[in-house]
Amino acid sequence: IQHDIKDLPDEVLTFLLGSRYCDTDRLGDFAWATFGNTRPGWARVQAICDFVHNHIAFSYQNADALRTAHGGFLDRTGVCRDFAHLAIALCRCMNIPARYCTGYLGDIGVPPVPDPMDFSAWFQAYLGGHWFTFDARHNHPRIGRILMATGRDATDVALSTSFGLSSLARFEVIAEEVGTVPGGNGIVPGARSLASTRKSRHRGSSRT
């Protein structure tokens, strides 16, 4: 269910407000015109995810560390953080608390792709007294998420924050699925099998 604002815990209220990358004041009229007639609660959040998923085209080449939710709405392109920021802002416009998640999403349970993998962003919405995971970029259930941190937007939980000049020499991401030992009886952490092990590495420039 979607809670009335008066019934929300105090610590959740901050996730109804606009923030640096989630400029709700620019999206409120559009949000209510588009989603005002949807069923409150889970169905409304899913309608927002469907819209964002179809509205933004994923492109690493079009990443922009200064792009806000409204910017993503206008540009219709971006990376996972742009999907998350727009979905969060629209949820907040509809009085649904939403927070930004940063972490890693490997290729477990889906066909592997040859592209180098990276950190990922998604969001959580507060419904029925709990935070539930939504991902407007992929927009279907995924397993193997590794949550690192949550915040109002990417400002709170940037992958890196530097104070002064810095130069990124290299970074690498690896995720391995826990597998079973052939002929064994159970799960062994870190065990490798051809059928289940996935490795993902990324080397490149920094993205906040």
Question: What does this protein look like?
Answer:
The structure is a single chain. With 208 residues, the protein is of the alpha+beta class. It has a single domain, classed as C8orf32 fold, CATH 3.10.620. 21% of the residues lie in helices and 18% in strands. It has four helices and eight strands. The protein has a four-stranded antiparallel sheet, with helices on one face. A two-stranded parallel ribbon has the order 1-2. Helix 2 crosses helix 4 (80-93) and helix 3 packs across helix 4. The longest helix has 14 residues, at 42-55. The protein is globular and about 50 Å long. It starts with 27 loop residues before the first helix and ends in a 20-residue tail after the last strand. Mean pLDDT is 87; it is low at 190-208.
Helix content: 10-25%
CATH architecture descriptor text: Roll
Outline: globular
Structural class: alpha+beta
Strand content: 15-25%
Number of helices: 4
The major beta sheet can be summarized as: 4 strands, antiparallel
- CATH C-level class: Alpha Beta
Strand order in the sheet with the most strands = 5-4-3-6
Layout of helices and strands:
Elements: H1 28-35, H2 42-55, E1 57-58, H3 69-75, E2 77-78, H4 80-93, E3 98-105, E4 119-127, E5 130-134, E6 145-151, E7 179-180, E8 187-188
Parallel strand pairs: 1-2
Antiparallel strand pairs: 3-4, 3-6, 4-5, 7-8
